[in-house]
Amino acid sequence: MAKYGYLGLGIMGRGMALNLVNAGHDVVVWNRSSEKCDELVAAGATKGSSPAEVVASCDITFACVSDPEASKALVFGENGVLEGVAGGKAYVDMSTIDPGTAQTIGAAIVEAGGRYLEAPVSGSKGPAENGTLILLAAGERALFDEAEPAFSVMGKKSVFLGEVGQGARMKLVVNMIMGTMMTAFTEGMTLAEKANLSTQDLLDVLDAGAMSNPMFRGKGPLMQKESFATAFPLKHAQKDMRLALLLGDELAHGMPTVAASNEVFKKARNKGLGDSDFSSVYLASKD
Amino acid sequence: MAKYGYLGLGIMGRGMALNLVNAGHDVVVWNRSSEKCDELVAAGATKGSSPAEVVASCDITFACVSDPEASKALVFGENGVLEGVAGGKAYVDMSTIDPGTAQTIGAAIVEAGGRYLEAPVSGSKGPAENGTLILLAAGERALFDEAEPAFSVMGKKSVFLGEVGQGARMKLVVNMIMGTMMTAFTEGMTLAEKANLSTQDLLDVLDAGAMSNPMFRGKGPLMQKESFATAFPLKHAQKDMRLALLLGDELAHGMPTVAASNEVFKKARNKGLGDSDFSSVYLASKD
Amino acid sequence: MAKYGYLGLGIMGRGMALNLVNAGHDVVVWNRSSEKCDELVAAGATKGSSPAEVVASCDITFACVSDPEASKALVFGENGVLEGVAGGKAYVDMSTIDPGTAQTIGAAIVEAGGRYLEAPVSGSKGPAENGTLILLAAGERALFDEAEPAFSVMGKKSVFLGEVGQGARMKLVVNMIMGTMMTAFTEGMTLAEKANLSTQDLLDVLDAGAMSNPMFRGKGPLMQKESFATAFPLKHAQKDMRLALLLGDELAHGMPTVAASNEVFKKARNKGLGDSDFSSVYLASKD
Amino acid sequence: MAKYGYLGLGIMGRGMALNLVNAGHDVVVWNRSSEKCDELVAAGATKGSSPAEVVASCDITFACVSDPEASKALVFGENGVLEGVAGGKAYVDMSTIDPGTAQTIGAAIVEAGGRYLEAPVSGSKGPAENGTLILLAAGERALFDEAEPAFSVMGKKSVFLGEVGQGARMKLVVNMIMGTMMTAFTEGMTLAEKANLSTQDLLDVLDAGAMSNPMFRGKGPLMQKESFATAFPLKHAQKDMRLALLLGDELAHGMPTVAASNEVFKKARNKGLGDSDFSSVYLASKD
To answer: Which residues are paired to A47 by β-bridges?
Structure first.
């Protein structure tokens, strides 16, 4: 049985690492502020001393940190991942980063003698804890297959998408559809209100038909209460839409519906909703 | 047990009337070209001689015809519904008509001594045959309750939405969300293609997550084959978006995402796709 | 020298009729509330007793009333225009009406033995008074030529556009470009502000270059003061954009930029700006 | 009288440098491929040996190169501008570069003991030759005043906009209004065509009214002929709109009309029009 490392025990990483431990795997964990390791150690994990040491001592090391800068610091910093990968160690970065950063990191890992996979996830805190994430992997195909026992514990589905960068790109496409579906929904909810239709009736009708989906089902009742506790911050949702539109720009691909939706999200940020849940774009649709 | 009438045996009406007959109800049918009644009579229905006669001889008469003009002709024409409603006969119009036409018809029926409900449906041919339509009813509340035994056979869900016109309005809101979700989806599918991502991977990822819905699941594989056999004509989908935007106009409600989507549908009409399935808007997104 | 009639002495009609009188023409005027005729009579006009009488006693009668309903009432009402046109009298409707209404009125006039021209104008109060309107004429070509001496007094330019309805359509195209230029402008003005650029510098730079135009020059300084006294009501500007988009809809012509702009105007109406000048859409762009 | 340097003799720089020489100024010129200096030398300029040498030997050195990369190479390269600025030499970069690059260059120049102004221009080849550019300057105010004798020869108007970066930002705002006005115009031209209105009539009417501007006047007749010889490449126009939208993104400012227009330009690029004049977006509006 493979020995796994896990670097970064934030909201997402904590859930994934715990699932690995609870499934009976031998796991070495590391986090910048080390007290976050305690819960994992109590559950059966071992505490590592640095990213380099964890990577060198494990077969496959996973990581999930907050953004491209943190991701690069983890790899290129002192006692970083890069110092431990020689001799064919495998590194799987599950952070949400842009295609360019993924390519930079992947190339460096491989050049240093290591193996690389990007595997950003679709899903937030709940799915990370429940092991129901969707993993968007790209890079070395053989490593994807080897990591399957770990992936199957962390997520309900993992797909292999080709060369490094395609994982990041798929995530942008998915999140851009999500953001646009969200404003389609909020424009409908607010029109219903102005037309004196019951939004509950609207939710019921939508849920009974071909558009029925967990997002409308989950966010609709929260909109009715104007309850926007953050599951996915609006500013991050808008950032992904911006990046998706820039990907379209690169490819000379016009996407008018997405672009219109993106501007609504900007208006929502201007209302101070950047840190609220992305469903709070509802309040901008109301204007 | 109530005696039911059914006027209009087209694609939608035929399925609904058959379901009433097959459920054991006593049903009198009528259609402008009378040979369409044969199948129903063979199944156990009685053939009526005119709308007026059907309405006068039944407790509740349902109708489903193609558009507002046909709907008005059925009611106000010679031997039309209006001539049969005196004495409290009930008429339920399930055609897709605009709020104004529904109000005109409803007021005339009531003035002539009848009872009225509009009940446009969400769903197309398949759900009409399977009895899984969603009924958007508005008008007389008591009649809605009395019609429940019939509604439960024709649809899987029926909601009562208030005064006449609200059924039509709810349908516009629902269809406008549907059209906008569709271009959000086609812009994502075409971006995936241009970014060398597999659309099958995209469909799989979408179907595993919070956006999973029957429409993406059903239309996605057809888009991959560019197979656009008409379930819901694109020109009708666009017409509903136009009317929803005009409803917003009436209410001073800006809906930028919907408006952007609507223009994509117009571009699709300009490509000659008006009579294809509304998912063929994919071809306009590809440009 | 031809004898002219003028029906309707509101903001626009008053200026045009005065210009005809001041140019030395023999003019018979009529207005629903007759005291508005006094100023014209003082200037040298004759007061008529009804639309029918004016039309019957003049060679060419012009009219400018507020909307399609007023326009139809003037023609089809008791002692209306229609009763005076027999025997080849000419009627030129300068009101802003939709293509359908223009066609209805034109057909009725011609059938009654009269001659017809629609001639909606581009320009507001100032140009009506200064004789610098632009006349968008359509209908009978010979009548357009005969009316030239009057047109040249009321406007600085008149164009003949073909069959009845084309005048109304041209006005929609012009006003839709105007509305969209306006939100392009307000989005730039508000971006400049948020970027700590001086809007005065922006106005100066715009005015020195290829985009230099009287509208930016006139409305820009008023925006800086948030002074939105009504020259052209926002709700009318938005109505024209709606009608232009519906004309596009009829012709299967997608216009995404115009549609986006139109929704901004709706948002402005929702802020209570419908009766303010259309440049107050600036306040919606600021959100 | 000050001694001027000019670096970069491309389409724009050549015209500006010639105007300086023809106005009687003492000018030292330099260009990467040195044969471009010949024409200037024939007109009275002196040929410099490197950017560093030109800067060190002149009071104020102007530069105009193609993009941010060329701009940085000119300053930071071997024998570059930076090596010549010590002792208070002045450098004015007239290239179109993003705010960040302008700030990077400006800071380096000042740290090396030099003085800096960014001064991107509004206007293309013709205005560069005729001396009718508009200069959007920012940086050191005193230098702006000192450069006035040169600016007044190169342009018809120069404005001082504050700290470095504001010149670049103003240019983005101006070009974004321009691009959006352009699609407002092309959507109107194509609607006119589909409605069987004469585009010549439309151009005449627009030119007679409040929207009258040199851009419509110049580009309209070229659109009628579908003649799109490049004055300003469509891909550059779209790039400026992208950057303006990203500036809005930074400032949480939604600009729906601009965003819609930007997507039309992307569609035009997808049709292969990137290198045509930006007015060829007309062909995308036609779809």
So the answer is: A29
pLDDT tens track for A218-264: 999 999 999 999 988 999 999 999 999 999 999 999 999 999 999 99
Of C185, C209, C285, which has the smallest distance from its Cβ to D122's Cβ?
C209
The pair of three-digit structure tokens given for residue A172, joined into one six-digit string: 């942008």
Nearest alpha-carbon partner for D221 in D237, D206, D200, D205: D200
Per-residue CA distances from C10 to C122, C230, D8 (Å)? 16, 15, 62
Q: If DSSP codes are grouped into helix, strand and coil, which group holds residue C124?
A: coil
The pTM score is 0.94
Which is the catalytic residue, given B72, B171, B219, B239?
B171
Neighbour-count burial for A212-251, b at 16+ CB within 10 Å, e otherwise? ebebbeebbebbeeeebeeebbbbbbbbbbbbbbebbbeb
Residue A1 pLDDT grade (very low, low, confident, very high; cuts 50, 70, 90) = confident
For chain C, the straight-line distance linking the first and the last C-alpha, in angstroms and rounded, comes to 57
Strand positions, DSSP E, B72-163: 90-93, 115-118, 121-122, 133-139, 155-160
| Whole-number Å distance between alpha carbons of A219 and A285 | 15
Q: What's the Cα-to-Cα distance from A43 to each of A15, A17, A19, A22, rounded to whole Å?
A: 12, 10, 10, 7
Cβ–Cβ pairs < 8 A, chains A and C: 9
Q: How many CA atoms lie within 13 A of D165 on its CB side?
A: 11
CA A268 – CA A249 distance, rounded (Å): 23
Return the closest-CA partner of residue B187 out of D46, A176, D267, A267.
A176
Annotated catalytic residue within C171, C194, C225, C267: C171
Question: pLDDT confidence of C11, banded at 50, 70, 90?
Answer: confident
Contact A258 B287 (CB under 8 A): no
Question: pLDDT at residue D1 above 80?
Answer: no
For range A83-109, the mean pLDDT: 95
Is B93 a residue whose pLDDT tops 80?
A: yes
Instruction: Tell which residue, B162, B132, B144, has the closest CA to residue B60.
Output: B144
Q: What's residue D267's pLDDT?
A: 98
Domains and CATH numbers, chain C: 3-163 (3.40.50.720), 169-286 (1.10.1040.10)
Tell me the catalytic residues of D: 171
Q: Does residue D142 carry a pLDDT above 80? A: yes
- DSSP-based three-state secondary structure for A91: strand
Residue-wise pLDDT for B115-163, tens only, equals 999 999 998 888 999 999 999 999 999 999 999 999 999 999 999 999 9
Sorted by sequence, the CB contacts under 8 Å of residue C241 that are 6+ apart come out as C175, C176, C179, C180, C258, C261, C262, C265
For A257, B193, B212, the CA distances from B218, given in Å and listed in that order, are 21, 19, 11
* Class of residue A176 by CB neighbours under 10 A (exposed 0-12, middle 13-18, buried 19+): buried
Cross-strand partners of A233: A277
pLDDT (tens digit per residue) in C113-141: 999 999 999 988 889 999 999 999 999 99
d(CA D273, CA B78): 60
Which of the 8 DSSP states describes residue B92? E
Please report the pLDDT score of residue D200 as a whole number.
Answer: 98
Helix/strand/coil for A141? helix
Name the residue in chain B with its Cα closest to that of A167: B197
pLDDT tens digits, B29-62: 999 999 999 999 999 999 999 999 999 999 999 9
